[in-house]
Amino acid sequence: MPTYTPPLRDMQFVMHEVLKIADEYKAMPRHADVDVDTINAILEEGGKFASEVTFPLNIGGDEEGCRLNQETHEVTTPKGFKEAYHKYVEGGWPALSCDPEYGGQGLPIVVNQAFYEMLNSANQAWTMYPGLTHGAYEALHAHGTPEQKKTYLPKLTSGEWTGTMCLTEPHCGTDLGMLRTKAEPQADGTYKITGNKIFISAGEHDFVANIVHLVLARLPDAPQGSKGISLFIVPKFNVNKDGSLGSRNGVYCGGLEHKMGIHGNATAQIVLDGAVGTLVGEPNKGLQAMFVMMNAARIGVGMQSLGLTEVAFQNALAYAKDRIQMRSLSGVKAKDKPADPIIVHPDVRKMLLTAKAYAEGGRALSMFCSLLIDRELHHPDEKVRKESEELVALLTPIVKAFLTDNGHIATNACMQVFGGHGFIKEWGMEQFVRDNRINMIYEGTNTVQSLDLLGRKVLGNNGATLKKFGKMVAQLVEEEGVNEKMAEFINPVAYLGEQMTKFTTEIGFKGFQNPDEVGAAAVDYLRVAGHLVFGYFWARMAQVALREIAAGNTDPFYQAKLQTARFYFAKLFPETATLMRTARAGSKVLMDTDLALA
Amino acid sequence: MPTYTPPLRDMQFVMHEVLKIADEYKAMPRHADVDVDTINAILEEGGKFASEVTFPLNIGGDEEGCRLNQETHEVTTPKGFKEAYHKYVEGGWPALSCDPEYGGQGLPIVVNQAFYEMLNSANQAWTMYPGLTHGAYEALHAHGTPEQKKTYLPKLTSGEWTGTMCLTEPHCGTDLGMLRTKAEPQADGTYKITGNKIFISAGEHDFVANIVHLVLARLPDAPQGSKGISLFIVPKFNVNKDGSLGSRNGVYCGGLEHKMGIHGNATAQIVLDGAVGTLVGEPNKGLQAMFVMMNAARIGVGMQSLGLTEVAFQNALAYAKDRIQMRSLSGVKAKDKPADPIIVHPDVRKMLLTAKAYAEGGRALSMFCSLLIDRELHHPDEKVRKESEELVALLTPIVKAFLTDNGHIATNACMQVFGGHGFIKEWGMEQFVRDNRINMIYEGTNTVQSLDLLGRKVLGNNGATLKKFGKMVAQLVEEEGVNEKMAEFINPVAYLGEQMTKFTTEIGFKGFQNPDEVGAAAVDYLRVAGHLVFGYFWARMAQVALREIAAGNTDPFYQAKLQTARFYFAKLFPETATLMRTARAGSKVLMDTDLALA
């Protein structure tokens, strides 16, 4: 059976030593009182919740899955899931970073996201129930009417009710412009909503009394395509004026999907059979309103893979130290044993270090993004808010796609460390691979993320936001350019930064003549950008480690950090050499293939 | 539900137009009568068997899995599996390439392997039952006593009985030197065998009356380690002198593993409780005897992934043409539809072409290996036999590791083409990913294959065998060096060939000083070697296609082949740039990481 230890030390390193978040929060009135000890104490408790309450339910949840009663349309979640959720609610966890106006604790996003990393390590399927609720909370918080907010936000904040996002239909996922669900206005100001939704995560369950579905649908007079989509609240039970539950609404679970992974989460087919809904935001502006939660959800998906990468690494490391098999190529290491532990083998170490480097790089990047969101929401300086918003928009597709692709590489590598035992369910490793696999697909496939990055976020403003990130790189190069000890970490980043600038101009020019050039380069481009960003954060982490060591700090944590940084730059970062080459190979070899793909 | 069409045209292209196998067979007395029409007719029938009999059982087999009756120790296979096996036996398929002396049809290995590619596309879990039998057949054919051969080979050839390989024990897989199963000599010349084996594929089932286990065990006076292992036949039912079944032997299934994939195959824990066995080959030479079947099995595992790559490609291609979603970046393509089929998107094409290029490259390489085995077994010239043996030994780890890693990349890419639907079981795509995953692990993990390639097959004889493959490359370069149309296919291969030579010398030198350098480079090295070999075969396939086109052949197959070749060299082959760099980054960044991996 797998084990999990919350990576508190590394989280503290990123938060307090690299990003120095407490200093940042001093500038934000909302968070001015948040200090290092409070953050650490909360995450320590959060880690206990994840490792002691939801982690032990992970394998059982996968085995048992969710069951639908076809007559009542009610879903039974795996054993223990409901009780864990009630503990979660009792602990006040849903409210962590919610608005105090609606009962929230008003803590920074960084804290909540760090907590979510641990929840995802422990049990991604379970974590999706509160995770989706958080998305619904954010969309309503941004776009709900005062009455809607008053009715729903306190319940979502306390965790008394949960939420969903109902976007996908059988014939449309990426292309929401094609959606068919209808919303007919009623005399009382509500809407009668009819249609079929699929792939609705946490769409039905037995945790709580009510589920708040946020549903995209089309008004009768709506323009065609994505400009004719509106957002509605459709609760499972209608809510009376006094906030008590009324009649059962015409929204129910018609079926559950049988999936590769995340079995513990109910992926529901949701039938809307003249359900009563209320409009959120303006008519036909539903996609924009939904984007609020989609962006948060995309970073959330990256955190899911970060969590799985971390837990897979921990277990593979323990196995590699324990399992004895063959002798080291460079001579016997464990003389008292019939064979050496497999960690003596270079390639086993490579698999382990790949997961470790991706976990720690991903943690730094995603915490930085969360800090940017905190700045965007609460920094007093409008310019800082705006710049943070732009930068997080640039980094969001990278967090989503790069961290989930890395999670795929890392969980598979960690499974491979186990040899044949990795393929066996009881060890838990293959579940991490299966659960991670959806992260590369949902909330916009990783191809869609790459087009969002290159087409919209980079070329869409002629590289202006990318240049802002470039400035951060340039600043680091300036700070450390003469530090010989930093050269091995700074030089590759500086070099790639220059390459990226040329490369971006080149693709922009080619894409102007033929947009398929952008589509052909986008996936490779995102991975190069991912390494540029990871390289930057690895260099910053190395910088802190070197300073501590120079100051006489003998905590082995810092030497370990340097070892992992060296591994990253030597063995993972050079992937960019191929990616630049294949991106430059252009679109013709892809598009002139009608006979090959006949 | 997925579909499958046997790729007969491409098989014929490789067999008859690239490798010209019928000409080769004219030189071999055993196969002198084998002509093109016979081969094609057999494979057409074989394709029907795969697509019509075993393919329809694939998803059901995955859902149902195998069940063990704990009291009788009997295993029930999924619905239809047993009946399909009986049709397989009635069709004479088990005997295809077996020795006529024992009832076989004596056809070339190429034919049998091409048939197996299709069986694996159709249903890998089912195919492992006859596949393991074939391995047992080969080990007994090479090392059995005349009496053992007379007793067992006709039954394995007809398929009346099946076989297994019992190697792994709970504490040892790769490191068989540690195995503990005991074999005590009895007065009647038999052995009493006691121990526990795990991960025994096709280890127990309801297909046939008897199962012939080939078991590795240790004699009482055996030397320690791998030099003290002997091979035994341990039948499920003892066999009487007249060939009829006798008493139930003390070998039974103690449990079935719950696995990520290949659910339809019974992965058995086999308990040997004083079972009666007979020695195969010489005492303490069991590993050598087993290697006969392990080499064949390694190529067989590569064929499993080849089969999955092909079937995943076919289904992703069909989906990409059918599924409409978004518009082409370069303008509307399907004006009559609300969106364009997703095949218009460059990255969707890239995912499809990746699978196609890996399937067709893998088919050429593995058929060439099978031809080498035919030469090794039946060529009248001893020198040809020896050279073929050496070359197939070099290529075996490449077929095993490169094709299975490519299968991982390809099945995941094809699943990704389906978006959210790829994660849903009913589409069948995620099963291809799960089934393929074991291929990277069993029969020696891909790390073990890479050490076999670099340490033993390449450096072990100072690159002598590699140079033989280099000569094949050089010959092609000489033939086509002045052909401008071939330059795009020949130049990258020639360049990489030169690089490989330097690179090999370099690693050999470093490895001489520090063997961990070999371990650190091996996995990257194998992938570079894989691309060198694939590049060579893609160039040869392009050569044939260009000649046909020049001769006025208007079959679009040849243009399609060139399109895929161009894609391969532009988008997949350049991976070698990174691999050479990371391999050269050496072992220090892996080995000096005790603190990072504390």
Automatic annotation (TrEMBL), chains A, B:
Record-listed E.C. numbers: 1.3.99.41
**Every Acyl-CoA oxidase/dehydrogenase middle domain range:** 165-273
What InterPro entries has UniProt attached to this entry? Acyl-CoA_dh-like_C_dom, Acyl-CoA_Oxase/DH_mid-dom, Acyl-CoA_Oxase/DH_mid-dom_sf, AcylCo_DH-like_C, AcylCo_DH/oxidase_C, AcylCoA_DH/ox_N, AcylCoA_DH/ox_N_sf, AcylCoA_DH/oxidase_NM_dom_sf
SUPFAM superfamilies in alphabetical order:
Acyl-CoA dehydrogenase C-terminal domain-like (SSF47203), Acyl-CoA dehydrogenase NM domain-like (SSF56645)
Q: Which reaction does it catalyse?
A: 3-(methylsulfanyl)propanoyl-CoA + oxidized [electron-transfer flavoprotein] + H(+) = 3-(methylsulfanyl)acryloyl-CoA + reduced [electron-transfer flavoprotein]
Which Pfam family is one of this chain's hits?
A: Acyl-CoA_dh_M
Q: What's in the keyword line of the UniProt record?
A: FAD, Flavoprotein, Oxidoreductase
Q: Which residues form the Acetyl-CoA dehydrogenase-like C-terminal domain?
A: 471-593
Oxidoreductase found in the keyword field: yes
Role according to the record: Involved in the assimilation of dimethylsulphoniopropionate (DMSP), an important compound in the fixation of carbon in marine phytoplankton, by mediating the conversion of 3-(methylthio)propanoyl-CoA (MMPA-CoA) to 3-(methylthio)acryloyl-CoA (MTA-CoA).
Q: What is this protein called?
A: 3-methylmercaptopropionyl-CoA dehydrogenase
